[in-house]
Amino acid sequence: MTREITDPEVQLLVAISGTLRADYADDDLAWAGSPFAWIKTRPSRQVGAIGEKLVAGWCAAKDLDVNRSPDSDCDRLIDGHRAEIKFSTLWKNGGYKFQQLRDQNYAFAVCLGVSPFDAHAWVVPKSVIMDGVGTLAGLKSQHGGAAGKDTAWLHVVPGEVPDWLRSYGGTLADAFRVLKKLVSR
Description:
Number of domains: 1
Oligomer: single chain
Number of strands: 9
Strand content: 25-35%
CATH architecture: 3-Layer(aba) Sandwich
């Protein structure tokens, strides 16, 4: 049921909203029909939790034992190994941004990115992340300028993956092979 808007001030706002919508239509079109589009409708505080559940479900479906972390220094225990999980949907610039990679108690980070009709993942040891902040392509300090190294973000464009990151995944199958090696140690 459509309701008629009679307030002239609200009508004015509706008209302005209509002109602005065109600026954002490309975002909607890129995700139209995507099985992941519903994630884009969720508040940002929920998106990270959804990513954690996607990774946990993926690992469990691949016969890995997944448990909640006993503390806040990592997100899950995967086959007994402490894992930090980072999630990103594809940004307008064509890349993923995995944020808040902190110097906490975990063995590796699982970085899962979803595009409208594809997904990518990298499983990176914590030591590579923390040692590479500011020196490896795409891995930058998130806080504290160039000197800050306790929190990082990783920016990855799927078609332009830095050489150092290629050995840690890309496709889900490649990332799973890396994950299996890390949890079998």
